[in-house]
């Protein structure tokens, strides 16, 4: 597994952005896991969007080589206007957005799985071209880690190796037993 822990991981500023990890893959590209760009919390616990932090996160993803950002967050779990704002800010940066929601703390639904082949083909082509594929959920751990590990399994890693690699870059990734077990089942079906 050390072979994929290369020193050429792109730099990102974890303070100015919501990027949690950039992980080298067996395909030569990278997987970037991020919380929803610009999503912050007031001291009273209410969520809000910071357009500057959103822009810095998206610029950081582009600097890391991302042209694709798969958003796994459900629109209802974000402050109003989140999807239109991220679409507006990402467009001039040349960052293509795709939306494929997964319920928080969960695994892909049948609806997600029906759409997955098209998403997977695009993401795998980007990785094979040496690009960075960016994955975003609310915090950047559970759903982003789950899909990152799934892409690594598709690249030939075992589920255990994929989960370990993702967690070596962000320990909170693949955040529960349901997600771990789902990845183990995916490996069996491969």
From TrEMBL:
Source organism of this protein record: Sulfitobacter faviae
Protein name: Tyrosine specific protein phosphatases domain-containing protein
Coiled-coil annotated spans: none
Annotated ranges, domain Tyrosine specific protein phosphatases: 128-181
Domain of life: Bacteria
């Amino acid at each position: 597994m050390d072979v994929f822990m290369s020193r050429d991981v792109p730099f990102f500023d974890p303070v100015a952005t919501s990027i949690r990890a950039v992980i080298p893959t067996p395909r030569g590209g990278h997987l970037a896991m991020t919380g929803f760009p610009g999503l912050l919390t007031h001291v009273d616990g209410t969520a809000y969007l910071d357009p500057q932090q959103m822009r810095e996160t998206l610029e950081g993803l582009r600097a890391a080589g991302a042209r694709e950002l798969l958003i796994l967050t459900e629109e209802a779990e974000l402050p109003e206007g989140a999807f239109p704002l991220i679409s507006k800010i990402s467009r001039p940066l040349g960052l293509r957005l795709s939306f494929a929601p997964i319920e928080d703390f969960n695994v892909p639904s049948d609806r997600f799985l029906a759409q997955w082949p098209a998403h997977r083909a695009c993401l795998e082509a980007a990785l094979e071209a040496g690009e960075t594929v960016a994955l975003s959920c609310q915090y950047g751990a559970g759903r982003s880690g789950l899909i990152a590990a799934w892409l690594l399994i598709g690249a030939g890693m075992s589920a255990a190796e994929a989960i370990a690699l993702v967690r070596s870059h962000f320990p909170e990734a693949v955040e529960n037993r349901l997600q771990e077990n789902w990845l183990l089942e995916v490996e069996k079906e491969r």
